[in-house]
Amino acid sequence: MRKAHLERNTNETKINLTLNLDGSGESHIDTGIGFFDHMLSLLAFHSNFDIDLVAQGDLEVCDHHTIEDCGIVLGKAFKEALQDKKGIRRYGSFTIPMDETLCNVTLDLSSRSYLVYHCELKRERVGSFSCEMVEEFLRAFAFNAGITLHVNVYYGTNDHHKIEAIFKALGQALKQAVIVDGDKIFSSKGVLEG
């Protein structure tokens, strides 16, 4: 089984994470930010990853440190769980409609970290979650996991729907990319390293 367990303790956050890429989509998420918990639960469900994550952060300051650090830890655990990436399909792409919103997430588990993010959000917050933190979470996750990640919300009017569509599509794209479909490294170079 492809699993990883990580702890990160700083003056701003304390995070404990167990990630299983070969799970069933079960999750236990507690970050103190309700909407973020919901998004990470959707990510787990749509990826079929088991995610057990508890974070205690300086929410009296704001949600930035907690959300970004969760992205860092999740990215590092994902990279560790993938090991040498032998046999994985590597690429994933998923387009999801969520009512009036249409979103695509396309990714490459190449070890070359990059984020392209196109999503206009009008609200400052959804619940206690700062909308600007969607991009920050995705960047932290992609750069620590070694993923080239493209997120495009083509249209929509409801910010809740846009954000939810991103997390669902990310889960589905990751599910495709981590499928083991052979015994070779899927790269003409013979390695998937930066």
From TrEMBL:
Example GO biological process: L-histidine biosynthetic process
One Gene Ontology term, aspect cellular component: cytoplasm
Keywords: Amino-acid biosynthesis, Cytoplasm, Histidine biosynthesis, Lyase
Pathway(s) per entry: Amino-acid biosynthesis; L-histidine biosynthesis; L-histidine from 5-phospho-alpha-D-ribose 1-diphosphate: step 6/9
Cell compartment(s), UniProt: Cytoplasm
Record-linked SUPFAM superfamilies: Ribosomal protein S5 domain 2-like (SSF54211)
Record EC number: 4.2.1.19
GO MF annotation list: imidazoleglycerol-phosphate dehydratase activity
EC supergroup of this enzyme: lyase
Catalysis: reaction(s): D-erythro-1-(imidazol-4-yl)glycerol 3-phosphate = 3-(imidazol-4-yl)-2-oxopropyl phosphate + H2O
InterPro entries the UniProt entry points to: IGPD_sf, ImidazoleglycerolP_deHydtase, ImidazoleglycerP_deHydtase_CS, Ribosomal_Su5_D2-typ_SF
Coiled-coil regions listed: none
Family statement drawn from the similarity comment of this UniProt entry: Belongs to the imidazoleglycerol-phosphate dehydratase family.
Name this polypeptide is given: Imidazoleglycerol-phosphate dehydratase
Naturally occurring in which organism (per UniProt): Faecalitalea cylindroides
